[in-house]
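Hey, sorry to bother you again with one of my protein questions. I've been staring at a protein lately and its backbone has me curious. I owe you a coffee for this, so here goes:
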Amino acid sequence: MVAIPKCVIDIVPEAVKIIESVSVSGQPHAIVCGSIGIIGESKVAVGEVLMKRTKENLAANGKASILITAGPKSFELILENAKREDSGPVFEGLKAKLAEMKLPCFAAWTFDVKEVWDESAGPSAGTKIA
């Protein structure tokens, strides 16, 4: 696991967040996922709202990445150790936040951050930063 850099944490509130998973046959699948949150120095969580294929992919192989983009700044988090939680404090916190938006939350998926890449528009694109 690696610590999520401050430059990533700083853009999360205003960022567009996309989670990408992979099927067992290798087919990538990406969705916009506003419920992505940082829950520790090296962990992120995602609310399971309308993620049918993503849920299947995560359950099958746990492979995922998250792209966080705000203006010209963009970062990819490579994730591992996907875990589905349908009880506990992380789930309850996401469920409460999503309820404010009138969205259901069926579970929380938590992940360890394995790597962080700078994918910003500029000369640093493609640089591993953590």
